Amino acid sequence: MWTWFYKLASPPYVYGVAAALRLWLFGAAALAMGYGLIAGLAIAPPDYQQGDAFRMIYVHVPGAILSLTVYTVMAAASAVALIWRIKVGHAVAAASAPIGASFAILALVTGSLWGKPMWGTYWAWDPRLTSELILLFLYVGVMSLRSAFEDPLRGDRAAALLAVVGVVNVPIVHFSVVWWNSLHQGATIVRIGAPKMPGSMLWPLLSMWLGFMLFFGAVLCMRLQAEVLNRERQASWVREAIKS
Amino acid sequence: MNFASDGLEFEKVHVWRGDRHVLQGISAHVRPRELLHISGANGTGKTTLLRVVSGLLRPEQGSVTWLGQSITSSRTEYQAALAYASHEPALKSDLTAIENLRFAVGLKRRVTPKDLLAALDRTGVAACAELPARVLSAGQRRRVSLARVLAMRASIWLLDEPHANLDAEGSELVSELLQAHVQEGGLALVVAHRDLALSCPVRRLELNS
Amino acid sequence: MTNEFWSMGGYARYVWPCYGIAGAVLAWNLWAAGRYLAAAKLRAARALAMASSEAR
Amino acid sequence: MTVGAWEAFLLVLHRELCLSFRRPEQLFQPLVFFLIVTTLFPLGLSLQLSALRDIAPGVLWVAALLSSLLSLDSLFKSDADDGTLEQLALSGQGLTLIVVAKTGAHWLVTGLALVIVSPIVAIALGIPTSAFAIMMLSLALGTLTLSWLGAIGAGLTIGLRRGNVLLSLIVLPLATPLLIFGAAATDRAISGTSTAGAMYFLAALCVFTCTLAPWAATAALRITLE
């Protein structure tokens, strides 16, 4: 079982799989996002409360969900890399961080654009926005820590440890902000309950979420190829790999 | 002191620092009553090797074993039997020489101030015992760090450039200490540029890039 | 119809920038990853060239 | 002949306290910083004492977080710089024990000191004396938790050139729950409402962090010591 595991995590294998998967993932992501865009922007009816403003959900929510998913992927890869000393884990974590950070920025900016017409302000100390901001800080911390080390191996391991510490902290931060908000009773928040959504609104959302996931997978493959190359020392397979 | 029959062994140790392959499969076996003299030009990984043997640095490939056991599995026991003197004297400048010794040696074994003073006396810096390390000269600091190694009464000595900053008489002292340690049944790994000029058996390990 | 679509029921000034930013973030991801991969390949190629020239 | 864990713990604690008191200026700097920051807030806002009371918990807690962060940078760094950290790591005592002793000593000389001077600041900010007990208890729990979070951050940033900036970047996001519950507890103590909820959360955070952070900080040190 373990030999299988290590073969799966071997750099040439990962590089090859990432290179092969990349285009398929991009194709699938384009299809899913294309359907989501058309159905979400043109076909879905306006929300009875929010009018057409609700259409921002189709980029805001997938961005926000992905920023968390990517962090989880990063932390899981980091934990695997730390525990079993599997270098590909560090490569996955390093490849995920900038993508996740960009999704966190997307969620924050679109969130505040959505907040303006709905809450009358670009920024509210809403639990979800606040936790998202903290999440962005964590991403920035992990990325800066990794790049601050001159020895990439130590940078990898330090960043991995921080990612794992952060993943323990994210739920605590979220929970504490929720508690804090209930104390302060800030701006009234218009919530869209996903289960109550009619299908014509929900399907485009699910499709967009899938598209974002596939897009993350595709970009992750590209970055993973680069990170694996940067970490590789046995040149034998690299010569073959970079020719193509 | 209890010295076991089988000594310290490291096998095919590989370490990379960034893109640099610092240690490329270094192996050696040092038994009690033996001294390994590690030499080589600057940047060939002498200090890195010493840090690997001490257990501070885990090699990417290869193993270090003590009494036939991997040092990662019995780390604290191994390190309790170890005295490491790094290239810098590792003294707190705000503490006096004897306090420095007390806080370092006291973690390895119970010591009395008398033991520590005796060690300082052996390395010729008993007069500096109550002075803060800040005011000591580089040579005196080196002697205090040697006294720390001595006072630990460890079976394994790892010394990184013990002659640095020492005068001729000081170098003589280093040789005497090493000789006495080896004759009592200890083993030592010494990184040094110069010849050690010892009468006890000396094995050599030359590192090159 | 088209006009109505573009005006987004009066929310055009929020909805379209929102999608614009989403597009920009996705495009940045593609561009940055592509550049990063190209740089890594170049670096690897250089390292290989240096290794083989040393070997000779 | 061997040294027991408790004995070793006390020895490291003694060493740390000894070192701190040899450098009293380093001891006082965070406290003075704490006093200055909390004095600047009222000056910048020019508020009446009564209105000051509303922002006092926030000001107090932000200043406390920043000033304990100030001293965290040197928690492992000075030992790493002169090589004594390697000696401690190779002492044959578990590294976790040494980390616990060092962080504990750090809290004693910074966190506890901050708790002791906090009434002075509280008076200046118009916090009623009835709230002092809760405020000091919450600060004690909060600074202890922060010392532990900081130990992880300090362990990770030892050998780095701009380590202290990075340290703040790493530790402050992790410390947001502390700020929220700590300020809330102080706020409620001032208004005389029940502080139990916030204090329980603070205590839970403290216990949770003190249980897990020693291992994380040890792992961080092992990584950066390599």
Topology readout:
The complex is a heterotetramer of chains A (244), B (209), C (56) and D (226).
Chain A: H1 2-8, H2 11-43, H3 57-84, H4 87-119, H5 127-148, H6 152-184, H7 199-231, H8 236-243
Chain B: E1 8-17, E2 20-30, E3 35-40, H1 46-54, E4 61-66, E5 69-70, H2 75-80, E6 82-85, H3 97-105, H4 113-122, H5 138-152, E7 156-160, H6 168-183, E8 187-191, E9 202-207
Helix pairs in contact in B: 3-5, 4-5
Chain D: H1 5-22, H2 24-45, H3 49-72, H4 74-82, H5 84-89, H6 95-124, H7 132-156, H8 163-174, H9 176-191, H10 196-225
Helix pairs in contact in D: 1-6, 2-3, 2-6, 3-6, 3-7, 3-8, 3-9, 6-7, 6-10, 7-8, 7-9, 7-10, 9-10
Summarize the structure.
The complex is a heterotetramer of chains A (244), B (209), C (56) and D (226). Chain B has 209 residues and is of the alpha/beta class.
- Shape type of chain A: globular
Average residue-wise pLDDT of chain A = 85
Strand content of chain D: under 5%
**Mean pLDDT over the full residue set of chain D:** 90
| SS class of chain D | mainly alpha
* Largest interface in this structure: A-C, 37 and 31 residues
Q: How much is the radius of gyration of chain D in Å?
A: 18 Å
Share of helical residues of chain D: over 70%
The geometry of chain D reads as: elongated
Number of domains of chain D: 1
Question: What report would you give on this structure?
Answer:
- The complex is a heterotetramer of chains A (244), B (209), C (56) and D (226).
- By secondary structure, chain A is mostly helical.
- Chain A has one domain (15-243).
- Chain A has helices spanning 2-8, 11-43, 57-84, 87-119, 127-148, 152-184, 199-231, 236-243.
- The two termini of chain A are 32 Å apart.
- Chain B is an alpha/beta fold.
- Chain B has a domain at 1-81 and 188-209: P-loop containing nucleotide triphosphate hydrolases (Rossmann fold, 3-Layer(aba) Sandwich), CATH 3.40.50.300.
- Chain B contains 6 helices and 9 strands, in the order βββαββαβαααβαββ.
- In chain B, helix 3 (97-105) packs parallel to helix 5 (138-152) and helix 4 packs across helix 5 (138-152).
- Chain C has 56 residues and is mainly alpha-helical.
- Chain C has a domain at 24-56.
- In chain C, 89% of the residues lie in helices and 0% in strands.
- Chain C contains 2 helices and no strands.
- Chain C has helices at residues 2-7, 12-55.
- Chain C is rod-shaped.
- Chain D has helices spanning 5-22, 24-45, 49-72, 74-82, 84-89, 95-124, 132-156, 163-174, 176-191, 196-225.
- The longest helix of chain D is centred in the middle third of the chain and has 30 residues, at 95-124.
- Classes of the chains: A mainly alpha (244), B alpha/beta (209), C mainly alpha (56), D mainly alpha (226).
- Chains in contact: A-B, A-C, A-D, B-D.
